Amino acid sequence: MPTRIDGPRLPPLSGISRQLVVLLHGYGADGRDLIDIADEWRGWLPDAAFASPHAPEPCGEAPTGRQWFPLSRRDPHELWAGVCGARPALDDFLDAELARCGLDDSRLALVGFSQGTMMALHAGLRRPRAPAAIVGYSGMLVGPERLAEEAACAPPVLLVHGDQDPVIPVQALFASAIGMAKARLPCQWHLSFGLEHSIDQEGLRHGGLFLAQAFTGRTPAA
């Protein structure tokens, strides 16, 4: 049985859940790290419920934090084993949360940061039914050479990265975009100049407007 995960939630501003945004934190953080993004986006997404689960494992390098999988060598084999191992727990959480809200995958958006972006892309592109959108901050696509064979859907994807990121270098953004293009999957990207391993206001703005467009078919006034 996959490990059951849970974390903080915020209800929709309108009081009616018509969309679900799931926020996936990075290595060494927990669900509380990203849930405040909801406050940035609720004006554009008043019908969206937000959930930010804690990753399934305690993080050895951050005693109060969590990890989706260990990062010791950070080589492609370790990353691939990690995303594959963590995917069942995430899929179970997504299925349960959608059922709780009375929604299906077409009303789901996945938003990740760093290791959470790895999970959002890995799980989201393999869902039996396409999510409405995936937004990935400061992360990367793991196993791009496997994507064409394994992708089950083609949701719109936005990748955002700082050009001064010392943790996951900006080259990962371009490698991810190329990997998705080779698999014939759509991908947009935004480069945040001067930004290190973080999310800035411009990146938040791009992400929120991207989700609003994906959910409603129209872009609200910025």
UniProtKB/TrEMBL annotation:
Say yes or no: keyword NAD present. no
Q: Phospholipase/carboxylesterase/thioesterase domain location, by residue?
A: 18-206
Q: Which UniProt keywords apply?
A: Hydrolase
Which GO MF terms are attached to this record?
hydrolase activity
Pfam families (alphabetical): Abhydrolase_2
Q: Where are the transmembrane segments?
A: none
The record's similarity note reads: Belongs to the AB hydrolase superfamily. AB hydrolase 2 family.
Question: What PANTHER family does the record point to?
Answer: LYSOPHOSPHOLIPASE-LIKE PROTEIN 1, LYSOPHOSPHOLIPASE-RELATED
Protein name as catalogued: Dienelactone hydrolase family protein
Protein source organism = Alsobacter sp. KACC 23698
Q: What is the lineage of its organism?
A: Bacteria, Pseudomonadati, Pseudomonadota, Alphaproteobacteria, Hyphomicrobiales
